[in-house]
Design goal:
Length: 414
């Protein structure tokens, strides 16, 4: 092994795992009683194995078993000495409750969230939350999906990940995994935010009852008005020349909901119609805030695109196409482990001053997961180590047919 300073006594995988205190895993396992009737493959070993699956992007149980068996001599650095058989991992994915991994993710987020915010973030973004959902398709009808039944009668499954993120952290803060056919509206009732927070989401979350709750809790919402939304105009606001120049068409105080609706199902707010020159489209926004300028409302909703970038990042860099089980529990476990891995990589990326793409860091980890390289030093100055090894002369070992070999000139008869 080279004695270069970029090499260390712990593989990259072990350095990543240092972000997860073992006490969190053991206490959570005890709380959920997830290690009862378990001899070797406990919750800790299960988590490490699934993180190996995520970082190496394994697509089958055999690939996991072979990959870990080849590097079994390095597993001691990870705190495990047992390579699970395919049947053992498959059974654990069925039997061990996925809520254990959800709880580990939640506690890890609380522990690492101080390393996530960007100091350059504006004050408004520090109070801004974004809600959306993404659907992951499955090859079998494991979880309920939407759409008409195909002609051949074989419908694919799918599940939906409802997500809440804080704009200045760019990682999921609150997650709920359900069937793809589940309604987005039901997710809002689980959201509890501090007074003065701002939350934006698309029109799929239209529910006046929750809008009213947010208003009473002084939580400001910005969303697009649904096509079927009904409101009563109460006051037309004056639009300045500056707002017209920025694309604002109208700004109106309204009462959302039909007049025949119950009092709890109607809510006061504003309707802002905005024209976007770039897309040549007009957008109708609803907000319960009376102080924001109409341009600010459009800019807040534009920030919603950040969560779409997050979904794209996770789907491109982690294995969410092939799952190691054909049951909902196994799918949830793999999804939670993907989110744990994403949180760890995000913390590493934020700790490096040098500009790195997220995909570049994930690729480096995947290719060198069990190599003895100090990842933080390498990420800070990769050009230096690459240049050093390029300048270093590499002497190839002598071969049977090498002119420098002691056996040069030896005749071989067949």
């Amino acid at each position: 092994m080279s004695k270069n300073t970029y090499f260390t006594g712990q593989p990259i995988f072990s350095q990543l795992l240092s972000l997860i205190p073992r006490s969190i895993i053991f206490q959570t396992a005890q709380q959920y009683q997830s290690d009862y009737y378990t001899k070797k493959f406990n919750t800790y070993s299960h988590l490490i194995t699934m993180l190996f699956v995520v970082f190496k992007q394994c697509s089958s149980l055999r690939e996991v078993e072979m990959g870990m068996s080849i590097c079994h001599n390095k597993l001691k650095h990870l705190g495990i000495s047992y390579v699970p058989a395919r049947s053992t991992l498959a059974e654990a994915n069925i039997r061990r409750n996925s809520e254990v991994f959800a709880a580990i993710h939640k506690q890890l987020y609380q522990r690492l969230r101080s390393f996530l915010p960007d100091s350059r973030t504006s004050k408004r973004n520090k109070k801004l939350f974004i809600i959306d959902s993404t659907t992951v398709s499955l090859f079998q009808q494991i979880m309920g999906t939407v759409g008409n039944k195909p002609i051949n009668g074989k419908r694919k499954g799918g599940y939906k990940v409802h997500t809440l993120i804080k704009a200045d952290e760019d990682v999921p803060q609150f997650i709920k995994i359900g069937k793809a056919a589940s309604s987005d509206k039901t997710f809002l009732k689980d959201i509890k935010l501090a007074k003065g927070s701002i939350v934006t989401f698309d029109k799929g979350y239209a529910t006046y009852k929750q809008y009213r709750r947010f208003t009473e809790e002084k939580v400001w919402i910005v969303t697009r008005a649904h096509e079927n939304a009904i409101w009563t105009v109460e006051k037309q606001r004056k639009i300045t020349d500056y707002h017209k120049k920025m694309g604002v068409i109208s700004d109106t105080d309204v009462m959302m909901g039909h007049t025949t609706h119950k009092q709890g199902e109607r809510v006061a707010g504003r309707i802002v119609v905005y024209y976007d020159k770039a897309s040549n489209r007009s957008f109708t926004f609803y907000t319960n805030n009376k102080q924001f300028s109409p341009v600010t409302i459009a800019q807040i909703y534009q920030k919603r695109w950040q969560i779409e970038v997050l979904f794209k990042r996770i789907k491109q860099n982690y294995p969410l196409r092939y799952f190691l089980g054909d049951n909902p529990n196994a799918i949830r476990i793999q999804t939670w482990c993907v989110l744990i891995a994403d949180l760890m990589v995000k913390v590493i990326k934020n700790g490096i001053k040098r500009k790195w793409s997220f995909t570049g860091i994930v690729s480096l980890i995947r290719q060198n997961l069990l190599e003895y390289i100090d990842i933080s030093l390498y990420l800070k100055n990769p050009d230096k180590v690459i240049r050093k090894f390029r300048e270093k002369k590499i002497n190839s070992p002598p071969t049977l047919f090498s002119s420098t070999s002691k056996n040069a000139g030896l005749e071989i008869h067949f």
